[in-house]
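Students often ask why we bother encoding 3D structure as a string. The short answer is that it lets us treat folding as translation between two languages. Here is a chain of 356 residues written in the first language.
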Amino acid sequence: MLKVEHLHHNYGKAEILRNISLGVERGEVFVTIGPSGSGKTTLLRLVGLLEKPTSGYIYFDGYKVNNSERARMEIRRRMAMVSQKPAVFSASVFENIAYGLKVRKEKGANLRLKVMNALETVGLAGYDKRNARTLSGGETQRVALARAIVIEPELLLLDEPTANLDPLSTSHIESLVTDVIKKSSMTVMMNTHDMFQGQRLADRMGVLIGGEMMQMGNTREIFNAPQSRKIAEFVGVENMLGGVIVSNEECLVTVDVGGVKVGALSKLNVGTEICACIRPEEITLVKSKESTSARNTFSGEITRIVLFGPFARVEIYCGFALVSLITKKSAEEMNLQTGDRIYASFKATGVHVIKK
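And here it is in the second language, the structure alphabet:
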């Protein structure tokens, strides 16, 4: 459906995107994650043909997009985009949603049926006569989504669609997006800085940092096997231990981390400097060493406990700092307190090794 090759884009002397190449399959949800200012919105605007790239190529449904305004307009009408701060006209909700259909010469009963169906889909049935400027942020975002899907686009572009919404409105919009995708088999390209939202919605993901697409893959590959320290830091791998591989027996390696030995899986050679990445949820906490069979078990002292929602984030020092994410219930059952001695353990399979 969509292919981007060697895309570069500058604003004046500022280089925003560097050598971006990617493909999105028909019916796929491709989510781009990355910190603010990484170029996510610019990439979506280029794909949506709202701007022309400094260099590089965009192919839509097999056709190379050229600089002809007429050709670009024809392709653009097969797409729809929802921005993070959507603009609405000072008119009824009905008129706002109908706008794209009217541009496409729809009229009469057919237009009204499509608009009312779109309102029903986004949960705004009965809002058709309301002035769109009087709606809440979450309702405005639903109107923008309805305005996009009512034209039945082949490619739906979503730019941080829940960035300015409260948690409840965010949940509603995510559910709507999921429902729309299921019902229409629409191809979706979406930006978000919310990694968990990306995990919930994506078939595949790309990590855009500093204008470069640093990694692409399914959610498991991105979050459990980041290809660089920058990516690991962004996707929430809080435990990153610098060390050197001191032995390798059929890919079961021993890493020397400041005199402490850590077991991991890797094909890298002895003597290689590495970063051992362990996600907080991979680290279990036990009161006695005998109650765990994990290869990596370290005695340490709890230095901090932070409760949030159903989880507890526990910081431990055991010659090096570790962070464990366990359930609040587990923390309460073990009666964990700051200053307690505890055993932190994780499997060799839970360690992702990145060459420095």
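Translate back mentally: The first strand starts at residue 2 and ends at 11. Keep this in mind for the problem set.
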